[in-house]
Each structure stands twice: as C-alpha cells, then as structure tokens.
Amino acid sequence: MLHSLTSQIGFVALLSTCAFAFSKGGYVERWAAGIIGVSWVLSVCISVVPSGFSHQVQEYTFLALDAATAVGLLVLAMLFAKVWLGVAMLTQSAELALHGAAMADWGVPFNLYMLLNNLVSVCLLLLLIGATATAWAQRVHARPSRPQNGVIEITT
Asked: What pTM did the predictor assign?
C-alpha cells in the first residue's frame, strides 16, 4: 500500500497530524490521535501483508477496525463532550456506511470507493488538526501575560 505516491503522502499526513496532536494538543486530542494513528497503521499492515484470505475477509477486517475506531471516539465523546468528537463520530459513520455499501455490492466502483474512503480519512485528520489547534490556542490564551516593566497588574 505504501508503494504509491498517494499512500506515502497520506502516511506522512498521518504522522504529521499525530505528531502535532501529541505535541500541542490536550489530553483528548492525544487520545484521539492515538486511536486514529493505531487504526491507520493497522489498516496499512493488513493491506500490505500478503495473505491467503479472500478480499471479503480483508474487507470485514477493515470494517471491524473502523468500527473499533468509532467506538474509541465514541467513548472519548461521551467522556469529554467535545463538539469536534461528535463531528468525528459522524465522519466515522460515513466510513461505516461506505463499508456497508461496498459489502452489499450496490455497484460502487472500487476507485470511487477508495476515493471516498480516503476523503473521509482526510476529513478525520483535518478535524484532529482543527481540534488540536483550538486546544493549543486556548491554552496559550489562558496563560497570564508577563508583567511589563516589572509592574504586576491585579485584576478582579
């Protein structure tokens, strides 16, 4: 899977996003980055490893992996009640619906399936970037500013 330029760009985007979330994000963003990162790495491992399994078994494995990701994000959403986690859950539901359409053989061409699958994954990364940037900005603005000329102002 990492033999094409597109998949290499995706993997770099994943690593960059997770590194950004771990370095600048809050507790929730770090957990979400871990869940999403592990999911992507496992899906790459599943698709790269040559096996005697049929395409259908591999598709069920991807479905189970995306369902586990959705459950992980759902737990975070229930614990921390962040809006972006709700949107991430909707994004994961689109991913699961896409799997269902492909498995039900509704005539979705494979190229379109892969394009939509990648777009949903990119949307999830963009959500994580936005949430991390927001958490970072809130932390920066919450810090008290340095006193000017040694004068400390006390506000009530």
From this structure: 0.82
